[in-house]
Amino acid sequence: MDTQTEIIVRLSAFAGVLLAMTLWELSSPRRKLAAGKGGRWTSNLLLVAINTVAARLIIPVTAVAAALTAESGGWGLLHQVAWPYWLEVTLAVIALDLVIYFQHVLFHAVPALWRLHKVHHADLDVDVTTGIRFHTLEILLSALLKLAAVVAFGAPALAVVLFEVILNATSMFNHSNVKMPEKVDRLLRWIVVTPDMHRIHHSIIRRETDSNFGFNLPWWDRLLGTYRSDPQEGHERMTLGITDYREEDDVERLHHMLLIPFRRAKQATTARRSETENEPQG
């Protein structure tokens, strides 16, 4: 698969899922929004554009190009075996998803990385655009990690494209403010991270923030002890975001969002229990 085809596939999937989840949110919202869509959506989507351009300019090698280079050089674990192609693709997608799970945990555990990741968690609402709202430096670090993982695993190019498309689509899906029957959600969250499952991760209560790290596959949280089934306050009453940034201007204006990692955290304007503090310890 060449770079042009990869771009077309990824852009088409992005636009299709964004449109589908937007229509679902409008027709059947799960929660009443704390802030309007206009400013948030404009800034979140502009941030995606900036991140895309920055990644292309600063990291000229795409993950697909890295996969093709690894294949030609025989690098990586999967190039040392002769397993069926479908199995190698499946294993590579699962392995890359596990890498993203650990990356997510790391961005919560390491204070310097958490400052970058705050941009994602500072959103006062969680909807489809929250799933693509990440600081540019976090996107660049993530891209470098994925390049290393692709080469180390020897992931086939098809697996890389599938993984990128699935990760982007499920991130928008599980951040969406959509309502679905509880029975459907409980069944579906055995195979994919659902909106009700991931929304808990955006709770202002720290022990809930540090749970449900998965973006695509829900198995890692269950296997590694980071799964939480329900929020303490319930989905309708739970407060989203972080204590450091509660003003709309702080989290909706693009230049404010980009400066969050470099600004001194504000004190919460209202008294909150110590368990809600969102600064990593240690």
Could you explain the architecture of this structure?
The protein has helices at 3-27, 37-58, 63-73, 85-109, 111-121, 136-153, 157-175, 182-188, 195-199, 206-209, 219-224, 248-252, 254-259. By secondary structure, it is mainly alpha-helical. The protein has one domain. It is globular and about 55 Å long. Mean pLDDT is 90; it is low at 268-278.
Low confidence ranges: 268-278
Q: How many domains make up the coordinates? A: 1
Q: Provide the gyration radius in Å.
A: 19 Å
Kindly state the percentage of residues in helix.
55-70%
Anisotropy-based shape: globular
Strand content: under 5%
Instruction: Give the averaged pLDDT, no decimals.
Output: 90
In short:
By secondary structure, this protein is mostly helical.
